[in-house]
Amino acid sequence: MSIAIHYDSTFDGFLSAVFEIYRQHLDVSSFVAERSYETEGEIATDLFAQPFNIETSEDSARRLKRAISKAACSDVLSLLETCFRSETVGIEMGILAYLRKLFAGIEPNYGRNPSSLEMIPLITIARSVRREMDNMLGMVRFNKAPDGMYIAEIEPKYDILEMIVGHFRGRYPNGTWAIVDVKRGFGVYYENRRTHFVTIPDPSSIAAHAPPDQFTQMWKSYYDTMAIKERINPRLLRRCLPVRYWKHLPERSLGTFSSKPLPSTVAKENAFASLRLDVRR
Amino acid sequence: MNIREKLNILGDAAKYDVSCSSSGSKRNSPQGGMGCGHSSGICHTWSADGRCISLLKVLFSNACKYDCAYCVNRRSNDIPRATFTPKELINLTLEFYRRNYIEGLFLSSAVIGTPDYTMELLIKVAKELRLVHHFGGYIHLKAIPGASSRLLFEAGLYADRSSVNIEIPSDKQLQYLAPEKNYDSIYRPMNFLAERKLEYKADKSKFSPKFLPAGQSTQMIVGASGETDLQILTLSAGFYKQQQMKRVYFSGYVPINADKRLPVITTKPPLLREHRLYQADWLMRFYKFEYNEILDEKNPFLDPDLDPKVMWALRHPECFPVDLQTADYEMILRVPGIGVRSAQLIVSGRRYSKIRLEHLKKMGVVLKRAKYFIYNSDVPPELHRLYPEMIRPLLVAKPKSDQLDLFDSMPAALPAPVTTQSKALPQSTVAQLQ
User: Fold this and answer.
1) Considering B13, B152, B217, B358, which has the largest number of Cβ atoms within 10 A of its Cβ?
2) Which CATH number fits domain B3-216: 3.20.20, 2.60.120, 2.30.230, 2.60.40?
3) Residues β-bridged to residue A3
4) Global pTM?
5) Cβ neighbours of B13 in A, within 8 Å
6) What is the C-alpha radius of gyration for chain A, rounded to an integer number of angstroms?
């Protein structure tokens, strides 16, 4: 009977599981990550597989990491970790398939070959994780709380919060700020040049501390003026800025503010008016 | 006038400048300040027209003394005018930056007073941001044509990127449309900044101050003055080579003013042409194409139906099919449907195993286009016997057929049975019908 492995959803936990698979010669059919934010119903379980719980062991994870770096290279290790962050269903089996072939040692230089059939899908997934990470650098929106702290809420598809923290530490080294991953109930808090990772049981209450202020409104009305009416292209907009992010972007989620007529509208109206005059003459 | 109205007016006046990038400058956060440069640039949001917004793009003032035909801010337009004070603009930039709305400031201005006076105002803002507020974010400053070289030099010390827009791709047309400007006044600041940057580059000490770390860019309006695509590409190739430009932008002409010298005001912006020009631009920047390979005197316009890379491939059947197992990287790059990423994957992967069609599919190669141009044991050989004239119709996107409407042709097919109905209808309706 095949086995469904339950582990604690960390990368180290997954590596410990792989370690145990090799040590105990387990016949694995699927992995089940036990994530705190997913309820029982959401986790897809295999009815015909026997559940098997594996405790995370740092020691075995470290040993496996060393083995991967040795058999392939350290870049591959970080690529696997990036893939793992995608939390895609079945990603563990994909990585396991790659590792099995890597450690089997049948093909020489398998670890360096980026175009093997097991590696290409992993590269594609890692690419989309990195893309979301890069996009998220620009899409974190801070609101200022009355006590001077800047608070942002994000809801990324992949688990990328830890990957973007370094960027914001370099950008606002002297500030006090917090970024909260609402979906995963997990946040980072930065104060006095120290970062703290915290789990947040009730992430929806965070936003109330920092309501939008006049700069948020100015940003929204600036954003609205920047679109050139003659070129409006909703499909392109949705491709560049997927709708799932709009909720936490004030420029897409706030209502429009009335503004006085803009130079481009006035100029265009005047031009049409002068044309009409010409026609009448 | 409050600051929000000013921001709206001056943002609106600046939006026809298409330069958006915040790339090319790597800067750590200064001591005691905030902000850093991200070398690949960061887009912060996209406006409703699908253009990215990464910098706070505003004019310092839109009260222009020039009268360029194509410009919304020209002297003869009766529009709302506004001017920032340096303090307002600096405060706005810093507050937006703290909230991570923007990557930095893109500051341009209409010419107020003299070019030198305008340039001084722009420099004042940049200088105060850098020196007083220790701002490490991105600053893009416009070089005002006609400003003195001392000021241009100073701008280069504080800005990451600078740009002068050439706007119209021929000197004669430029002087016709913008009587106060000519090519000399535009090329002079470009050349000056390019030369100074070269000097600074030669001095490689890590303590020497940075001078325009992200280089220069420029933009051209497409479709306002009857220029050809060849003219535009020739000019931009020259900019990349001689002035070491980082980017040349194309801006499809959006009519705002009714002017006899320009296309009529109801003209639609030439979006497809702009798109093809950017594709050609990409070929020159990332695919090692020369401008005269993409276009020549005989065909001075890009094909609207097919992208320039396919067009090149169809004009050069002698180079194809390409054997992916042995061909040079440069040649693989030239195969339609293969991009830079997949070309690199192919070159590094083929050392270890044979590249098969299923590999290519997973790499993201567009086989729909590539299959006619590659030699691979999985590709059916009859595809290689096709002539370019036969491949072309296979590649052109077919026009979408309309969904037929059941009731469209009804009145023609069946004459309305008025006579039978008229009995049941009241008298007044019958009178109307007749």
Assistant:
1) B13
2) 3.20.20
3) A28, A50
4) 0.89
5) 263-264
6) 25
Q: What is the pLDDT of residue B407?
A: 66
Residue B279: both structure tokens together: 């594709």
Q: Which pair of structure tokens corresponds to residue B154?
A: 């100073």
Chain B 197-256, CB below 8 Å of chain A: which residues? 252, 254-256
Domain assignments of chain B as residue spans, ordered by start: 3-216, 308-395
Report yes or no: A164 and A130 within 8 Å, Cβ to Cβ.
no
| Tokens 């109307």 sit on residue | B432
Considering only CA atoms, which of B214, B249, B162 is closest in space to residue B24?
B214
Alpha carbon of residue B101 to chain centroid? 22
Check if the beta carbon of residue B246 is closer than 8 Å to that of residue B214: yes
- Residues B45 and A251: beta-carbon distance below 8 Å: yes
Pairing mode of beta strands A142-144, B45-46: unpaired
Cα–chain-centroid distance for residue B87? 31
- The CA distances from residue B210 to B26, B336, B410, in Å, are 11, 40, 74
Contacting residues of A for B267, CB less than 8 Å apart:
none
Helix (H) or strand (E) holding B218: strand B216-222
Residue B395 tokens read as: 């590649």
Q: How far is CA B48 from the centre of its chain?
A: 16
Judged by DSSP in three states, B189 sits in helix
**pLDDT tens digits for B301-333?**
999 999 999 999 999 999 989 999 999 999 999
Q: How many angstroms away from the CA of A60 is the closest CA of chain B?
A: 31
Please report which helix (H) or strand (E) contains residue A52, including its range. strand A50-53
Is residue A231 pLDDT above 50, yes or no?
Answer: yes
| 3-state SS assignment for residue B2 | coil
B86-98 and B115-131 helices cross at what angle (nearest 10)?
A: 40
Tokens linked to B137: 């974010």
- List all residues 6 or more positions away from A32 whose beta carbon is below 8 Å from its beta carbon: A4, A5, A6, A7, A43, A44, A45, A51
Tell which wins on pLDDT, A43 or B158: B158
ipTM of the assembly? 0.91
Q: Which residues of A touch B81 (CB under 8 A)?
A: 263
The residues pairing with B218 across neighbouring beta strands, listed in sequence order, are B248
Distance of CA B193 to the CA centre of its chain: 22
B358 contact A CB<8A? yes
Beta bridge mates, A51: A4
